[in-house]
Amino acid sequence: MAASRSLAESCEQTCFKQYVPSLDLVGRRLPFGLAESGVCFPASEEALRGVELRCSPVTSAAEVTLASLAWFSSPRTSSQWLDHWTRQRMKWWRRFASTPSDFTSSDVDSKDLKSGTSHGVRILYRFPWGSEPLETLWSLGDTELLRTHQGARTKLQCRDGRRSVVPYVISMSSNMDHGLLAYLSNSLQQVQKVDGKQRLHQRKVLKLHPALAPVKVALDMGRGATVELRQVCEGLLQELQEAGITAWPGYLETAPQSMEQLHTKYDEMGVLFTMVISESTLESGLLHVRSRDTTIRETKHISEVKKFLLKYISAAENI
Fold first, then answer.
1. What is the DSSP letter of 29?
2. Count of Cβ atoms closer than 10 Å to residue 263 Cβ
């Protein structure tokens, strides 16, 4: 469920309120979780600090996008679930990173623990200006859940084997704005290359993980019959979009640019591949495919392009 609301009713509290209506869906058996995401509008900086969502030098306190998970488990396994979710969340953040070591975790100092919590873990990213929290995990016990439901233990009880218990809660809250900024910062690289004349060249590349790159391929035209080439580009664009592959229609741009300028632009945009439809495409169906990460240019038949891209993206997502 997603909503725009005051931070006073946090994602965490909304999950607690939905706990009782959700019990029938899970047969009153533990463990299970409730997740929510949405845009929140903090009433004050104090409220913002209260949910571990401090502002960075380039983000605003006017609104934050949160993703939250409340995990309900047996009291006897709650600490094990906190360890489990800490490992899983670190694995998730690092999975899409160019430099995984920039993502770290640390225990929350006892003096910074929220009221009613026994343990806390922060997942941090090392920005150029210092480390910032992306996500915080709290071991809340049953205090917050009981408080939300006015201490009505009977209606909160679930089955833990043969026993009926009030569950303990592991709460996870992520600042998705900081997460996006972390991946952009982590992916922007300065790549150096020495040419055949021993001259050093530098280029900026936004090496976003293929699963995160918003544009997978750019389509451009080479020299040749403009009308016919544009028709081929439009047909290929439609084919890719129908397959769920996001493509950039570079062939529609009117300002003349060299291939080197196009590659520089697309590298900085994080586009995975650049495909150039030329006169030879009209004659033989062949086009040039250039990779962002290797800069290698290959020749492929236009009928193979969709299959090639789908296979590449699928392989990257399953790593």
1. B
2. 19
